Inverse folding.
């Protein structure tokens, strides 16, 4: 979502840096949207984080755990 230009687009995000400590790196496989996301996509409210021009919406995503310190096997998970 690009509120400044009132555009909704699907974009590729760069991979975050290597994680450390208790952070995890996840690969999102799909994402769900809810009524709140629909309202944000209609530009009723919602703003990008400071310093960004876009807002990422969606939640309830299944994915795979790619990296966490101390975990070596592939883990499939879902989060909200």
């Amino acid at each position: 979502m690009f509120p400044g230009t009132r555009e909704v687009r699907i974009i590729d995000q760069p991979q975050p840096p290597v994680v450390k400590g208790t952070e995890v790196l996840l690969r999102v496989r799909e994402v769900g949207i809810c009524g709140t996301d629909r309202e944000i996509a209609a530009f009723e409210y919602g703003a990008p984080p400071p310093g960004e021009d876009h807002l990422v919406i969606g939640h309830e995503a299944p994915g795979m755990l790619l990296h966490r310190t101390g975990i070596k096997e592939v883990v499939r998970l879902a989060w909200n």
